[in-house]
Amino acid sequence: MLKDYLSDNLRFLKLTVGKERPQPYWSTDNEVILEKQTLHLHHFPHKNVQHKIPVLILPPQAGNHCNLADFAPDQSLVRVFQQHGFDVYVTEWLSATYHDKDLGIEDYINMTDDAVKAICEKSGASKVHVVGQCQGGWQAAMYCSLFPQKIKSLIVAAGPIDLEAHSCAISDYVKMPISYFRSFVSLGFGLMDGRIIVRGFKSLQMNEHYHQKYKLLWQMIQNNDEEGIERYLRFENWYGYTQKLPGRFYLEVVDKLFKQNGLVKKTLKVNGRVVDLENIKCLTIMLAGEKDHITHHEQVFALKKYISSPKKKIYSIVSNGGHIGTLMSKESLRDNWPKVAELLKVA
């Protein structure tokens, strides 16, 4: 009994204390077809392609690795679209170096355009379905408004569009003076350390991240639940492996998108052009989590008020999960994302 107890304690400590997180990996075979600045564009070839228009997934730039879109063999948005016959591409945004510190929103929109050009060249298509996850949601909407001729459909999942549509912890947090956020970038010598971002997200759910998950892990160890322990470790490795963002990009997002709500107020410009959501006329699908504590569903669904798509081409889907769950949980990938894929088939 004592030996088992000590063994369980030792394993618990090994899983939770002072562990260096390994670099996340992709679960589905892929190849990088474009490298530019902080962008690697991944193509996930397969033999079941049935639709001419490919899917481009834009994962969030929020301090974590982009394999969120291909998290595990049985937990992969990439594979959901593959199973429905789509050719799939994903942008991987690399951790920024000192040489990248001055990259801004405009640079990332330009890199997104480079990705779309590469996809169209490889696939022979003239348009893409673009899927924006979380922060990738506003990026997808912004790109679609600037290049509507290149987009067949727009999917925004748990992505903040109108920060004034509903108050939440994030919208309240960005009311802090911009000097507060600049201080973080100064600490990183021009870069925003992803560890700070992740700690901020954890602080929104203190009980879950600093108590409940350890309680559940201990129970799994005592019950010899190896599958559960593997799931815990995989998520912790992903969540704990952080990346750096260009300081300029981070501050522009905070100020222009979150503070000024510029995406809906038409105060954003890219390459001298005003970002106007009214330019969006394509099939638009919005997916939001009922329990999302980061991006309230009204901030997502508000998109329909600003675009020009016909009502019959606008769909709102509510996930039963929270923020990350909406994007990658087994339940959402089983219940919600196949609905998205089916809508794309008739876009």
Structure characterization notes:
By secondary structure, the protein is of the alpha/beta class. It has one domain: Alpha/Beta hydrolase fold, catalytic domain (Rossmann fold), CATH 3.40.50.1820. It has 15 helices and 14 strands. Strand 13, helix 12 and strand 14 form a beta-alpha-beta unit. Helix 1 runs antiparallel to helix 8 and helix 6 packs antiparallel against helix 10. The protein is globular, with a radius of gyration of 20 Å. The N and C termini lie far apart (62 Å). The model has no long low-confidence stretch (mean pLDDT 94).
CATH architecture descriptor: 3-Layer(aba) Sandwich
> What is the level 1 CATH name?
Alpha Beta
The helix content is 40-55%
Summed up, the domain count is 1
Biggest sheet record: 8 strands, mixed
- The end-to-end distance, rounded to whole angstroms, is 62 Å
What's the CATH H-level superfamily name?
Alpha/Beta hydrolase fold, catalytic domain
Radius of gyration: 20 Å
SS-based structural class? Answer: alpha/beta
- Read across the widest sheet, the strand sequence of neighbours is 1-2-6-3-7-8-13-14
Written as H for each helix and E for each strand, in order along the chain, the element string is: HEEEEEHEHEHEHHEHHHEHHEEEHEHHH
Can you tell me the residue ranges where pLDDT is under 50 for at least 5 consecutive residues?
none
> With helices defined by DSSP (H or I, 4 residues minimum), what is the helix count?
15
Give the overall shape, derived from the CA principal axes: globular
CATH topology description: Rossmann fold
Q: Strand portion, in percent? A: 15-25%
- Average pLDDT, all residues: 94
Q: How many beta-strand segments? A: 14
